[in-house]
Amino acid sequence: MLMKPSAVKEIVIDGHSLTIETFVAVARYGAKVSLAPKAMEAMKESRALAEKIAAEKRVAYGITTGFGDFATVAVPEEMSNQLSTNLILSHCTATGDPYSQEVVRGMLLLRANALCGGVSGVRPLLVEMMVEMLNKNVVPVVPQKGSLGASGDLTPLAHMCLPLLGKGRAVYEGVEMDGGEAMAKAGIQTVDTLVCKEGLGLTNGTCAMTSVGTLALYDTIRAAKTADVVASLSMEALTGLKNAFDPRVHQVRGHKGQMQVAKNILLLTEGSEILSKCQNDRVQDAYSLRCIPQVHGAIRDAIEYVRSKVEIELNAVTDNPLMFLDDEAVISGGNFHGEPMALAFDFLGIACSEIADISERRTERMVNAALSNGLTPFLTTQGGVNSGFMIVQYSAASMVSENKVLAHPASVDSIPSSANQEDMVSMGTTAARKSGWILQNTLSVLADELLTACQAIDIRRRLNTHGQGISPVHQKVYELVREKVDFYEIDREIRPDIEAVEKIIRDEKLLQIVDEMVPDFD
């Protein structure tokens, strides 16, 4: 079971121990951050090596040379500081709406944590400044569009770094203002210039895509659990058959997620009078009910794969070049390349879109009298003059269709840059952003299903063909919905109902009810 990030109040970063939950705790819930003493020492030693390399005029990319295709251009020592500062200024080319504050806080945290690895040559002072920005909630304004995902998230990270120089824009105490003004009001001293190697150390990396994608991953994990709850309630509304969830069926196939989801559905429906009275109604159900374990389970397994990759990336050093103290080697590599995250976040978006895909099919079955096993057309009590839930399914179908467009993988595309020096890029930031859009659509589709299922339960109870009782946990979920939304007797403006249930879907209370009543649910 996931640790609740909202309960975490402080973390220590050392470059090695950040988790998805502690990341979300800082990015979303404002947990305080401090630096491990060992990380401070490692950064000091790394900075000393960078200064030694510069003083000895060794040929080292980004320290004594230009960047990208300018790697062959030597930069005199007296210009090396200007080189790093110019990198930030010249790379601030992003456009579009700004990232949310939680995404930018996540970017700051990830950049600070990566530099704690002590192989980047950046002054500890800059990391301390980023930590102070997190703790005082100075949030740079970072436009969303402009990253190729290699050499890392150059453009968004450049915007993120502008307030360190007293430039750019930032939000402080809820007000957007000049970056220097925000830092001054928060009592954070800015720097006039960066020094050699720092431009690369701050901007080379996958911090934007990883921040966006990690937040989407965390919320998709919760969406997958919520989908099991909503689907099991729809099972009762549709008088579904429980034999398809017999553990023996799933054990002989062997997929972990499938077995877990089948177990969840049986736990959630335990004690249902309606289901106890319908098991002989037919031999088998349609796939959107019968194959919930196979579909939801495959989604769970996909999410688990993405999680395994994200947990590595949260503590990865992703800038270039890297400096190693044991032999003073300066190695130009490609850790900034976003392909590991690009593929993972494309997969995450595809998996999340499937949550919505099967959810909409269950909603359709509940509103379609030819498929609902006895429910009224469009869940009305007086059809014809009332349209009931007819258009709820339209809305869900629209979002599912949009998700199919968004699920096209960004990672299969590449446009060469920097005079073809950077000739194959990841587009990982686009993949991460798309996964977030898909998630929001999916949560809305689940809200449509939950609203529809509660209406269908009421209709089923009125018909009284299989009794009145739903499972205890479903009764609590039903009551949670009915606290906000009344039974839909005659047509009314339905949007407020949908908004109320969307809030329930996005809130922690629904899963909290399930966790308390069904401890083995996961």
Explain what you see.
- Strands 4-6-7 form a 3-stranded antiparallel beta sheet. Strands 1-2 form a two-stranded parallel ribbon. Strands 3-5 form a two-stranded antiparallel sheet.
- The termini are close together.
- It is elongated.
- The model has no long low-confidence stretch (mean pLDDT 95).
- Helix content is 54%, strand content 6%.
- It contains 20 helices and 9 strands.
- Strand 1, helix 1 (20-27) and strand 2 (32-35) form a beta-alpha-beta unit.
- It folds into 2 domains: 5-205, Fumarase C, Chain B, domain 1 (Orthogonal Bundle), CATH 1.10.275; 213-318 and 336-517, Up-down Bundle (Fumarase C, Chain A, domain 2).
- The chain has helices at residues 20-27, 37-55, 80-90, 101-115, 124-136, 154-161, 179-185, 198-203, 207-237, 247-251, 256-269, 273-276, 287-290, 292-313, 339-367, 390-406, 428-463, 472-482, 495-506, 509-517, and strands at 10-13, 32-35, 95-98, 138-140, 143-145, 169-172, 175-178, 322-324, 329-331.
- With 522 residues, it is mainly α.
